[in-house]
Amino acid sequence: MLGERHLNLLNFIIEEFIETAKPVGSALAAKNRQFKVSPATIRSDMGDLEEAGLLAQLHTSGGRVPTDLAYRYYVDNLLVDFQYQLSNKCRNKIDRELSNAGDAREISHAAAKLISDISENVVISGISQEKDFFKTGISNLFDLPEFRSIDRLLNVTSFFDEFDDMFAKIERQFFSEPELSIFIGRENPMPNLRNESVMCATYELPGGLTGNLTLIGPTRMDYEKNIALIRYTTKSINKHI
């Protein structure tokens, strides 16, 4: 049975891996002041988390990385009592850019560009009724170690390219929740995105139109920041219409 120390260790490993993209070893975790136990105890706890399907070891002598199940646990717990706040500078930039946008199309484009630039992920934003989409951020993937794999990069770019033609299917499968939906790894209904995480949201636009927003990044994405970013941006849009 997993105890509080196991879950604190899991959170540490997830956040460390999100930050560095490097497997986390017991020696590194043992240096953290919150864990007042030996590296051997940390290794034992990591083994328990691995048995529970929450960690994976890519190499026999290497550290551990979070699994899709670990990220799901992490996100679900974030959403229970979400505390993360964007900086004042970031919020002011979002408000300023959106207030300068004119019609629904300009607002949709501005939202995509803002979220992609700040999150450093791929973003597709559009108007559901008009099937009009703006796509940005594909170049952000080239800076991420996950996308050194050509096959993985091609999977995301093919989704990016085919989004317009597949939107009816995407709308049914991704935009099932009224506000924010998060699909992690193998949860994704689209096979070519099952190594990534996807966040989807809808929002109101002028003229009774509905905007849709899709953010795509590695499962190692900064969930706290991206959730706060999408929530604040859609709230700001609703404030300005």
Count of individual domains: 2
Q: What letter string, H or E per element, gives the SSE order?
A: HHHEEHHHEEHEEEH
Number of strands: 7
CA radius of gyration is 19 Å
Percent helix among the residues?
40-55%
For the record, what is the CATH homologous superfamily label of the largest domain? GAF domain
Average pLDDT metric: 92
- N→C terminal distance: 51 Å
Instruction: Write down the CATH class of the largest domain.
Output: Alpha Beta
Note down, in words, how this protein is organized.
- The protein is α+β, with helices and mostly antiparallel strands and 241 residues long.
- The protein has 2 domains: 4-66, Arc Repressor Mutant, subunit A (Orthogonal Bundle), CATH 1.10.10; 88-240, Beta-Lactamase.
- It is 50% helix and 17% strand.
- The chain has helices spanning 4-20, 26-31, 39-51, 68-80, 88-100, 104-119, 150-174, 223-240; strands spanning 55-57, 64-66, 122-127, 132-136, 180-184, 196-205, 209-218.
- A 5-stranded antiparallel β-sheet has the order 4-3-7-6-5, sandwiched between helices. A two-stranded antiparallel sheet has the order 1-2.
- α5 packs parallel to α8 (223-240).
- The longest helix is centred in the last third of the chain and has 25 residues, at 150-174.
- The radius of gyration is 19 Å and the shape is elongated.
- It starts with a helix and ends with a helix.
- The model has no long low-confidence stretch (mean pLDDT 92).
- It holds the Pfam family HrcA.
- One of its GO terms (biological process) is negative regulation of DNA-templated transcription.
- Negative regulator of class I heat shock genes (grpE-dnaK-dnaJ and groELS operons). Prevents heat-shock induction of these operons.
- GO terms for molecular function: DNA binding.
- It comes from Candidatus Yanofskybacteria bacterium GW2011_GWB1_45_11.
